[in-house]
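sry for the spam today, last one i promise. struct tokens for design, 182 residues
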């Protein structure tokens, strides 16, 4: 049942965007594998650390549930074994927020397949066509790219709806949407 409803499992990963001038933009995001919405993202030119992941956890909760101290129901937080995710403070904070913190087996990126697929899609549909002249230019475009993905990018698994179209088309009771495609 866990993966068949929104707000029961969220996955997270990070990726880098190489700019034409040599700058790099590092992006960390949270994604609900059921409805495919990229819930929140944070970006930096200095890399992703545990503090950024902890901020992402809080922002993701606020995006889905409003300003609360703890999740109303347990949500699995799935990530790889990067140091930003496995830092003791990140795990403790995640648990205090109500997350069931889980990491994928080492050297098994397919275990976080939805996050990996999102990165591939995001780079193919947005980054590769973007203006990558500099980090500031990429940072300016990121909000529009994420908004377009959530509002307009159709998904076969969502009957060719975008994540937000899917969420609007399905009744949301207790902040949980059944994913009928499974």
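last one done:
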């Amino acid at each position: 049942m866990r993966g068949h409803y929104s707000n029961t499992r969220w996955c997270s990963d990070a990726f880098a965007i190489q700019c034409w001038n040599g700058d790099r933009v590092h992006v960390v995001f949270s994604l609900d594998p059921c409805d495919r919405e990229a819930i929140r993202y944070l970006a930096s030119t200095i890399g992703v650390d545990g503090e950024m992941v902890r901020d992402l956890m809080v922002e993701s909760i606020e995006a889905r549930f409003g300003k609360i101290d703890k999740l109303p129901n347990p949500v699995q937080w799935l990530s790889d074994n990067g140091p930003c995710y496995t830092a003791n403070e990140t795990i403790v904070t995640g648990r205090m927020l109500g997350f069931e913190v889980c990491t994928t087996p080492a050297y098994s990126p397919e275990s976080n397949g939805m996050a990996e697929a999102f990165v591939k899609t995001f780079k193919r549909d947005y980054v590769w066509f973007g203006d990558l002249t500099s980090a500031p230019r990429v940072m300016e475009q990121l909000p529009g790219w994420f908004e377009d993905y959530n509002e307009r990018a159709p998904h076969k698994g969502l009957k060719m709806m975008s994540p937000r179209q899917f969420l609007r088309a399905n009744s949301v009771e207790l902040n949980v949407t059944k994913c009928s495609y499974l």
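The longest strand covers residues 9-18. ok im logging off now
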